């Protein structure tokens, strides 16, 4: 799908995207291609990576100075690793002009929102957000202006969050194709732990258990089941650390589920094995229907009898 060529109503004058990797580069490209900002500024530590994003047409201008870019922007989006978001938002808010709205794309929300609540100047507004889009690949070279098309974009305002700022961030994600939903930071972290963080841990554990002698025999099923294990370990270490409690609860459920399979195998209980496998088939079908209704899946419903179909 190509980016739209007709201009939509602008959402800001100058947008500063802090962290121009896969998510930041995709958002920058989406804002720029849709003419949703007069200028899109990419902000980061590496001039080389920023220049690449500029050469790829994702940003208009590059800056290695957060303070300089924040002062010029009226919309700032942090797409950095989660452990750097709070510090970055505080640094940007100090020099931001009145009315500036700041958001983020971090996959953990409770810690970020709580740390920033009541700590910023009253003329600067922060709205937590998280686009449910991405890839195990990193870097602006993999960015796609249509990355957010049909994807859930969660915003997590607190009761005291400025309503105009909430609407502005909601409109930003809708304008780049996202399906916006509102959750509390706590609810977001609990649900995303089960839908994203725990699956990543399980995929990593599964990938690490394959003995080298089995490598020639592992094929598409193993590849698909472990695809997300290819994510950046440094980035995922911080995500799991910030959402530790919810991830631990989710992992306990997975462990108990695996133990049910182990017990059925030990008892040579063929009927129980069938039930457990059938439950997995039916649960995945229920999820897949919801996923497709959201418009974000290119995957077609499969025949439940197709034992080679593997989800991720």
Word description of this protein:
The protein has 312 residues and is an alpha/beta fold. It has eleven helices and nine strands. Helix 3 crosses helix 4, helix 7 packs across helix 10 and helix 10 (244-266) packs antiparallel against helix 11. Residues 1-6 and 296-312 have low confidence and may be disordered.
> Segments where pLDDT lies below 50 for 5+ residues?
1-6, 296-312
User: Nearest-angstrom radius of gyration?
Assistant: 21 Å
The span between the termini is 23 Å
> Structural class per helix/strand content?
alpha/beta
The H/E string reads EHEHEHEHEHEEEHEHHHHH
Spatial ordering of strands, largest sheet: 3-2-1-4-5-6
Number of helices: 11
Q: Beta fraction of the residues?
A: 5-15%
Q: What kind of sheet is the major sheet?
A: 6 strands, parallel
Number of strands: 9
DSSP helix fraction: 40-55%
Task: Compute the average pLDDT.
Answer: 91
Overall geometric form: elongated
Please give the structural blueprint:
Layout: E1 12-18, H1 22-33, E2 37-43, H2 47-55, E3 61-63, H3 66-72, E4 75-78, H4 85-95, E5 101-104, H5 110-116, E6 125-127, E7 129-131, E8 152-155, H6 163-175, E9 179-182, H7 185-209, H8 220-225, H9 233-242, H10 244-266, H11 270-293
Parallel strand pairs: 1-2, 1-4, 2-3, 4-5, 5-6, 8-9
Antiparallel strand pairs: 7-8
Helix pairs in contact: 3-4, 7-10, 10-11
Task: Give a brief description.
The protein has 312 residues and is α/β, with parallel strands linked by helices. The chain has eleven helices and nine strands. It has helices spanning 22-33, 47-55, 66-72, 85-95, 110-116, 163-175, 185-209, 220-225, 233-242, 244-266, 270-293; strands at residues 12-18, 37-43, 61-63, 75-78, 101-104, 125-127, 129-131, 152-155, 179-182.
